[in-house]
Amino acid sequence: AQTVTQSQPEMSVQEAETVTLSCTYDTSENNYYLFWYKQPPSRQMILVIRQEAYKQQNATENRFSVNFQKAAKSFSLKISDSQLGDTAMYFCAFTTLETNSGYALNFGKGTSLLVTP
Amino acid sequence: DTGVSQDPRHKITKRGQNVTFRCDPISEHNRLYWYRQTLGQGPEFLTYFQNEAQLEKSRLLSDRFSAERPKGSFSTLEIQRTEQGDSAMYLCASSPSGRGRSGANVLTFGAGSRLTVL
């Protein structure tokens, strides 16, 4: 079974500061995809960033970047220059190559991030 | 296209009643997923459709749950004889065809249908 663990239930950061959210996963697969999704309060989940396991280069999307350590099965998200609008639940998710479940995602339990003024 | 739409957004029902949720995916997406999310947890996979075919069902999907996607477009999720443990947010997501590198593994989620069973 593939599991995703987010060990930080809650975090807070001041506006303009940098914060890192942790994620580890367990799989025996060699090819897979990792994601960070953001779920603002009472709003829909949106994709923040995606990483393909075969790529050694860490993915970046504007203020968001990841530190992908394949051997350690670690996939952390760094948010730079935090903004109030970054306040949300952040979910780390994993999927393998296409199966009978398509690309169904396995999610962690999430980290609630609060950005304070 | 405005994304994935779900209806209703909120449903309060009494235990034992039946409820149905509808999901309208992005029109060109042939893959559709249902998830359940309880408070403080990440979404859990329920079922997957490719076009009109239901290809996978999670063990979480008891026999009181049924999902359909009759024409490969919108989908419905019905819960019969609801129980208090069914209270959750039901999320629908869709993704395009193709392989992972093409973006087929990027799921677009709807806002969810929140169910409260009294």
Which key terms come to mind for this protein?
heterodimer; A: 117 residues; mainly beta; 6-stranded mixed β-sheet; 51% strand; globular; B: 118 residues; 4-stranded antiparallel β-sheet
Point out poorly predicted stretches of chain B.
none
Q: What is the rounded Rg of chain A? A: 14 Å
- Total helices of chain B: the number is 0
Whole-Å distance between the termini of chain A? 41 Å
Q: Give the number of DSSP strands of chain A.
A: 12
Q: How would a crystallographer describe the biggest sheet of chain B?
A: 7 strands, mixed
Structural class of chain A, please? mainly beta
**What's the rounded overall pLDDT mean of chain B?**
92
For the largest interface, the chains and their residue counts are: A-B, 28 and 28 residues
- Residue share in helix of chain B: under 10%
Strand percentage of chain A: over 45%
Shape of chain B: globular
- State the helix count of chain A: 0
Give the percentage of residues in beta strands of chain B: over 45%
